Amino acid sequence: MNSQSSFLRIACFVTAALLSACSEEQQRQEGGEKRSGIVKADEAGWLARQDEIQPVDWLIARQGKSGAKLASEEAHRLRNSLAEASKRFKDSPRMIANRAVQLEQMIKEQGGDETAVMLIAELTRAIAPGHIESFGAAAHQYYNMRKAGFTSERAFDELSKRYGEGG
């Protein structure tokens, strides 16, 4: 057997293995797209891609669980805030909702009382489009400042100075 024949045989084997792996990955992805059936906020501590509840509805329901029911005008503001955050940070509303809830929980562990709803609005207001790569990065910056002892007002002011329209 010559080297060209060996090369062709190896190339065919590698190609077949790659095609097989792609097919398996596609099947796994398609299987992962099935809906979860989760439609209530108290059923999910985290929003997965396949959850049927909308991020805004999940945040509103979570807010109600904390005893601070959102009035309809506040719910409307949240919808607008989440849409603006999604546009500004180029993250999905689901990702922003998850990160905001995660940040809320981390801050509560440090003794803070910020809500995910408030964090979405304030981080979006403080940071100009294109100045930070994602909502998660903005949340991380904010958390680091809070952990360093900044008040929430001072942390938002600092973010605004660094990454706001004038920053």
UniProtKB/TrEMBL annotation:
Originating species: Hyphomicrobium facile
Protein name: MxaH protein
